[in-house]
């Protein structure tokens, strides 16, 4: 261990720590030495996963859905992590460990604080006073700052006094701002009653895929990358995420929030079109209230012919407007052209990688538009590794490529730069099948990952769950069995096999063609749960 390059272990520190146990075997002895060595060398990024395991039984009251009853804390791992933390608190890194512990306790307290009134940091009581003292020591890190080898760690100078409450979200997240010692502000989202472990691991996966894309000349020359952000789970039901600045959700721009539809681009540019809420109501009625002669709803899905007829009627009265986004935010021709190019490349990369890892639940509030660069940014990864296909109203498309998304690509739509970038990205992923599937294998077999990857446990985070939609899943399909199936699906896609190809291996261009056609097929779009807003 003394001769190892420990920074190479940092991308997989979550998975390393998750394999701790109180066993006295030779493997566990070596594993503990490795963890202690990593923490000694890189205390801040390595401590977060260790403290997460130690707090593995800290579950907030009020968790909704099956996850609230399905969760079982791993006492053995909690004990092992606790022993390592206790050992670190007596060693040379004790001040840094103590500072991080107080910071984590502050965020956990913040996540669980009631949201029925204005919050200031002093309302957090002991957790705040303890953290305030720790900040003065200069050892409290900015939790969401990106760790870079050979770059100084950013430390907290102070927190803003007031804590804002988000207007939406399952648990009304708190929004807090802290300033580092250089004066830079770091805006953060503190979530409670929400499992951010899957979000953190998906961000980890995207960062590793970005390394693959950067290493290939074809994708490096096109600057094909996935936009990532920092997520730090603090307990199984609380966590902190980096606020992605300069962005707004696709839904907020296109159709506005529920009570402010008139502010959306559709209402502003197409005032005579049907309102988004009217379209949603029509699709819901088609799904839940069959006409005479229709096939009765099965598992929440309506009659395909009726659904398609309703969807086509909506598209005739609801025209795409996303192209106006670039005219509004990038008035200069050069800026407009550059932003459209970034939009195209990030859309292509996120579509191909999202399909490979089975990313679902891509409704309009889970996709961000960067108002400074034009990039697409995905958030909220509660449905992944094909879990969307197991919803009671299954998702039938490989990624979101609806009419508004296509309108943002301009006159060439899916032809030209978008298709070419998709092909280049898929070609690189397929050329690196062993590496990409190896990365995914490490992730899906993470013992801490089983609770949140199983579809019926991920359901509470999706819009479908909010509407009372449940998950279809065989009782035996759980945990590592689901992990093996997810990994098999990833490998098949990387080899050019899709579900509807009857075992025929497709070329890269043929695979991309099939995926684009499937994503745009009205017969697929019309059958998706209306909360996904397939007509937008």
How much helicity do the residues have? Answer: 40-55%
What amount of the residues lies in strands? 5-15%
User: Sheet with the most strands?
Assistant: 7 strands, antiparallel
Rough outline:
globular
**DSSP strand count:** 10
Mean pLDDT: 86
Give me the Rg, rounded. Answer: 24 Å
Q: Give the count of helical stretches.
A: 24
Q: How far is the first residue's CA from the last residue's CA?
A: 54 Å
SS content category? alpha+beta
Uncertain parts: 450-479
At a glance:
The protein has helices at residues 13-17, 26-41, 43-54, 67-70, 75-88, 94-111, 126-136, 197-215, 217-222, 250-254, 265-269, 276-288, 304-316, 323-329, 333-356, 403-407, 417-431, 433-444, 450-453, 455-458, 463-466, 479-494, 508-520, 522-525, and strands spanning 119-120, 156-159, 162-165, 174-180, 185-192, 231-235, 238-242, 247-249, 367-370, 376-378. By secondary structure, it is of the alpha+beta class.
Topology:
Blueprint lengths: L12 H5 L8 H16 L1 H12 L12 H4 L4 H14 L5 H18 L7 E2 L5 H11 L19 E4 L2 E4 L8 E7 L4 E8 L4 H19 L1 H6 L8 E5 L2 E5 L4 E3 H5 L10 H5 L6 H13 L15 H13 L6 H7 L3 H24 L10 E4 L5 E3 L24 H5 L9 H15 L1 H12 L5 H4 L1 H4 L4 H4 L12 H16 L13 H13 L1 H4 L11
Polypeptide structure, described:
The structure is a single chain. This protein is of the alpha+beta class and 536 residues long. The protein contains 24 helices and ten strands. Strands 1, 2, 3, 4, 5, 6 and 7 form a seven-stranded antiparallel β-sheet that branches. A three-stranded antiparallel β-sheet has the order 8-9-10. Strand 9 and strand 10 form a beta hairpin.
């Amino acid at each position: 261990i003394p001769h190892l390059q420990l920074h190479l272990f940092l991308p997989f520190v979550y998975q390393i720590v998750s394999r701790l146990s109180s066993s006295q075997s030779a493997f566990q002895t070596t594993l503990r030495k490795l963890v202690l060595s990593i923490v000694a060398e890189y205390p801040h990024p390595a401590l977060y996963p260790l403290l997460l395991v130690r707090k593995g039984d800290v579950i907030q009251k009020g968790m909704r859905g099956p996850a609230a009853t399905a969760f079982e804390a791993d006492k053995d791992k909690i004990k092992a992590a606790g022993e390592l933390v206790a050992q670190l608190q007596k060693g040379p890194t004790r001040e840094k460990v103590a500072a991080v512990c107080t910071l984590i306790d502050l965020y956990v307290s913040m996540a669980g604080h009631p949201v029925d009134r204005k919050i200031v940091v002093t309302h957090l009581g002991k957790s705040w006073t303890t953290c305030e003292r720790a900040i003065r020591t200069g050892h409290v890190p900015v939790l969401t700052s990106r760790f870079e080898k050979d770059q100084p760690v950013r430390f907290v100078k102070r927190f803003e006094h007031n804590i804002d409450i988000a207007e939406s979200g399952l648990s009304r997240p708190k929004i807090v701002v802290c300033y580092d010692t250089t004066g830079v502000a770091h805006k953060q989202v503190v979530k409670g009653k929400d499992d951010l472990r899957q979000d953190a691991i998906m961000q980890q996966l995207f960062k590793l895929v970005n390394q693959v894309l950067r290493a290939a000349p074809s994708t490096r020359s096109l600057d094909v990358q996935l936009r990532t952000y920092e997520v730090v789970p603090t307990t199984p039901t609380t966590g902190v995420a980096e606020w992605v600045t300069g962005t707004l959700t696709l839904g907020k721009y296109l159709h506005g929030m529920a009570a402010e539809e008139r502010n959306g681009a559709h209402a502003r540019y197409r005032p005579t079109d049907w309102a988004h809420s009217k379209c949603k109501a029509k699709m819901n009625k088609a799904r839940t209230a069959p006409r005479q002669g229709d096939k009765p709803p099965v598992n929440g899905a309506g009659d395909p012919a009726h659904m398609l007829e309703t969807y086509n009627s909506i598209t005739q009265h609801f025209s795409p407007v996303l192209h106006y986004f670039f005219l509004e935010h990038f008035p200069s021709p050069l800026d407009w052209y550059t932003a459209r190019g970034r939009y195209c490349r990030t859309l292509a990369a996120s579509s191909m990688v999202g399909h490979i890892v089975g990313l679902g639940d891509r409704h309009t509030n889970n996709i961000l538009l960067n108002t400074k660069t034009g990039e697409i940014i995905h958030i909220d990864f509660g449905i992944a590794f094909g879990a969307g296909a197991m919803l009671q109203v299954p998702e039938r498309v490989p990624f979101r490529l609806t009419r508004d998304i296509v309108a943002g690509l301009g006159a060439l739509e899916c032809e030209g730069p978008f298709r070419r970038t998709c092909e280049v990205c898929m070609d690189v992923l397929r050329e690196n099948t062993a590496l990409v599937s190896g990365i995914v294998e490490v992730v899906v077999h993470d013992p801490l990952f089983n609770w949140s990857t199983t579809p019926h446990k991920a359901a509470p985070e999706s819009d479908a769950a909010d509407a009372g939609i449940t998950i279809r899943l065989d009782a035996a399909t759980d945990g590592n069995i689901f992990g093996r199936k997810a990994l098999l699906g990833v490998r098949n896609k990387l080899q050019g096999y899709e579900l509807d190809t009857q075992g025929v291996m497709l070329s890269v261009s043929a695979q991309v063609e099939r995926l684009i056609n499937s994503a745009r097929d009205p017969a697929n779009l019309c059958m998706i749960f209306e909360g996904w807003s397939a007509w937008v």
